[in-house]
Structures are given as C-alpha cells and as structure tokens.
Specification:
4 strands; single chain; 474 residues; two-stranded antiparallel ribbon; mainly alpha
C-alpha cells in the first residue's frame, strides 16, 4: 500500500491514466489525458475523488414528493417517471464520472428493484441518498438507507410490526449490507433485530411519506449480539458497529477491492484498508484515496482482470472517444435500453444480492449483444460525422505518422487495457486498417493521415477492435 511514485519501471504515462480513468469512471478523452499527463498520480486521484465528494446530488424533480394519488392524476403512468430517472442517471454518468461510478456500486450493494418499489418519488430519494453518501460515512449511510421509503417498501420494513415482525430487512442488513452471509450473526440476532426495527409503517397518504408509528413498535426487551435492552432502530445500528466493526470493515473493503481492483481479494491489502476505515470512524474517502494512490493499484497484475459491465462498455466508449452522436437522438434512452438488453438495467439488479459482475456479464447470449451494441455506437458516430474519426487519429498519433503498424498499435493501446496482441490479430488489424488503399501507397509514402480514405480506415479498424475478447476488459 506504499504510495505510487513514477519510476522507470512504472512510468507515469497514458497507460496509467487510462487505468485510473476506466476504474474510477468511464474513461477519459484525449484532451483530458493531456491535462493529466501534466499532473502527478496523486494530484489526479485527488482531483477525481475530491471532485466526486463535492458534487451535489441530482436536483429534485417537481414530483419528488408526490404520493400515489398525485402520480395517478398526472396523466402519465409510473413507467414514464421511472424512465425519466434512469435517463437522468445516464446523464449524470456522462457528466460526473467517479461519483456516478460509486452510485452504481452502492445501488448494487444497497439493492432495491424499482418495479417492486413502484413509486418514482421513493426511487428519486433513494438515488439522491446514494449520491450524497457515496464517499461519506459508511455507518451513517447504513443508518439512513434503511429508513428510505424505497428500502422500507422493497424489504418489507413497512410491514414490520410488533405483533407480526418481518425479518427481511434485518436479515439483509447483516447478510448483504454489513457482515456477509453467516458471518458473525445468528438467527436469534435477526429475529431480535427485526423486533427492534418495527414501527416504520405509518403512511400519511398511500405511497406517500412513511413515518414512525410508536403504537406498532415493539417496546419489549431484545438481545442483539449479546446485549440486552429496549432497543430501537438507532440502537441496532450503534450496537452493530460497536460489536462487529472489524467484520464490517473487512466485508465492505473486500467488496470495494473486488469491484475496483480484482475479483481475487488480497487479504493483506484489504486488512490495511479496513484498518484505515476503522481509524477514520468509517469515513470512506480516506480508504478510496489510500487504495487508488497505492503501488498495488498500479501493479500490472491487476490491469487485465476485470470485465466491463454493459454500462462500462457503452459509457467507456462514448467518454473516451468523445465523438458526436447525432442530432435528435436520445442518447440517454439509447444507453438505458442497450445496457438493459445486455443484462444491466439501472435501478433493477437481478435480485436483492445484486449483479455479481465480472465473468457473470459474459455468456452466449450477452456476448453477441456486446459486440453488436459497441458497433452500434460506432455506426451512430459515423452517421453523424465521418471526419471525426480522422481528426481523432491525427490527434492520437500525430499528423505526420504514416506507418500502419504504429497507427494500429497506438489505437489499440488507447482502446484496450495493456496486453500483447496476438500476432495474427495484429496482422488482421493492419490489413483492416489498410482497407482498399493500394499497398504501394504505404511503401512509397503516397498515403498520409490527411487522405480522404482515413475516416473509413479508422472506422473499420475500431469496428474490428471491439470484436476482440480483450476489449471486454477494463
């Protein structure tokens, strides 16, 4: 966990900047890369993390506090408002990078499924809370997420009453949100905790604000983690973090590590992260900075081990190329629809345990769609403005470069994680790039990057690259 300082063996260059930008967001453009090359690794991490921490939550829409009656009277069905928020989430991803990368991570940790909640106002407040706590205090995050109307509805907290306790939220609080399955709690702890969490079930109006109802709260004595008392909601959170702080820290740091670094946990690194989390009273920002500034983060063994999610795939291409997409095209809706078809619908993970990610993203059904939709983006860029492919390659390799192998290699290095391309794939890529340009044009110096053939050459090369297996890695 020693801080990374550039050296001849691990220089500060485009590869390292691409690693940071792909893991902490959705890639960076050539112009952003130039700016980052003029800063240090620590400065780049600080700019990204502090920027995310200081980004305000998405502004509340006019319907953010509507109840069911108001939505029914609006003249639009609820799917309209759900789609509005999904599109807003993709707009936020385009604009806010790391903060929205964290929002995806946390929405896959504190899972709700919007169709089951079926209340757009609840979904907005859930999303806003996730954004505001993405780099905040984990204990506060856990406490507040459990009282959001979306979570109370999704995990049946609104049905949890003293005469008929519902254990759903108590179980997931321990199993999925803080400790891990079977890790440091018993069935008795779940049952007693569910009693302590009773009472949050008074609706002012149907699917409106949910309030605490003292008459449905179990005021009798409960025993949680060996501590007995007339516990309520706040007591549960306090006891949990007092009695199981190390387990919580290890659990959440392991999840962070697996998401941002590697699917294979490194126990030594995770222990250091967990210690930092506890020392900082569960403030998460120091942990993220410690991890992302470390030599371990930049270790080449961690470069090619994570598979892009559908959102990573689509947003990563769009952000790094920074191409014009087309007028009168609903970009956010297209992103929402394509990612949903590839298995990642925002605000709707597969179940309460969330998307498992990594290799689960790739199967016989999803892989052809990933090829198709990456190509779909390139087609849309081409239809909008063919010349942007030429402008891009000139900026990437320099206007004077004429060697096809060099041009192909530099584009490969920009679009991919570091890897050694197979010899036959490199030959294929060079041939695709040359296209219909006569061979002697390259040999005799007749061809240049100013030629009218270049936009099509770059376009076809990109279309070839997105079909390679390694393009699925981030």
């Amino acid at each position: 966990m020693t801080p990374y300082i550039p050296s001849p063996s691990i220089p500060w260059n485009e590869k390292q900047i691409n690693l940071i930008s792909r893991r902490l967001g959705f890639g960076c453009s050539l112009s952003q890369m130039t700016l980052y090359l003029n800063s240090s690794p620590s400065e780049m991490i600080d700019a990204i993390v502090d920027g995310a921490s200081n980004t305000a939550s998405t502004a509340a829409p006019e319907w953010s506090n509507w109840d069911n009656k108001q939505f029914n009277a609006s003249g639009k069905n609820k799917s309209y408002y759900h789609t509005f928020l999904q599109k807003q989430a993709f707009s936020d991803m385009v604009n806010n990078g790391f903060r929205e990368c964290l929002a995806i991570f946390w929405s896959n940790h504190f899972v709700i499924e919007y169709r089951d909640v079926n209340q757009p106002a609840y979904l907005y407040h859930y999303y806003s809370l996730i954004q505001s706590h993405a780099l905040g205090n984990f204990k506060t995050f856990v406490s507040e997420i459990g009282l959001t109307p979306a979570m109370l509805r999704y995990l049946n907290g609104y049905e949890n009453k003293k005469n008929s306790p519902n254990e759903n939220y108590a179980r997931e609080l321990y199993e999925l949100f803080t400790l891990g399955e079977g890790n440091g709690y018993s069935q008795e702890d779940i049952s007693e905790t569910s009693r302590a969490l009773t009472g949050y079930n008074r609706f002012k109006t149907y699917l409106g604000i949910i309030e605490f109802n003292e008459s449905t709260h179990d005021k009798a004595s409960k025993s949680i983690f060996g501590r007995t008392g007339n516990w309520g909601y706040d007591d549960v959170i306090n006891i949990l973090f007092e009695e199981r702080s190390e387990r919580i820290a290890i659990f959440i740091c392991t999840k962070i590590y697996r998401y941002f670094i590697s699917p294979v946990p490194n126990s030594e690194v995770i222990d250091r992260m967990a210690n930092t989390l506890i020392e900082n009273e569960f403030e998460m920002l120091p942990v993220f900075k410690q991890l992302f500034k470390s030599e371990h983060f930049f270790d080449s063994t961690n470069n090619n081990v994570l598979i892009k999610s559908p959102i990573d795939l689509m947003l990563g291409m769009h952000q790094s190329l920074s191409f014009q997409y087309g007028e009168n095209v609903d970009l956010e809706l297209n992103f929402r629809n394509k990612c949903r078809e590839m298995g990642q619908e925002i605000f709707s993970p597969v179940d309460v345990a969330g998307w498992q990610g990594n290799h689960d993203w790739i199967n016989s059904e999803s892989l052809p769609k990933r090829w198709e939709y990456a190509d779909y983006l390139l087609i849309k860029y081409w239809q909008k403005n063919k010349n942007q492919f030429q402008t891009f390659i000139q900026a990437l390799v320099g206007n004077q470069e004429t060697r096809p192998a060099v041009i192909v290699t530099k584009l490969k290095e920009f679009m991919f994680c570091p890897f050694v391309i197979k010899e036959e794939e490199m030959l294929d890529a060079i041939n695709v790039f040359k296209g219909e340009v006569p061979e002697n044009y390259f040999e005799e110096g007749i061809w240049s990057l100013n030629d009218t053939s270049v936009p099509k050459q770059v376009y076809e090369l990109m279309r070839f690259f997105v079909t390679l297996p390694e393009f699925q890695l981030k």
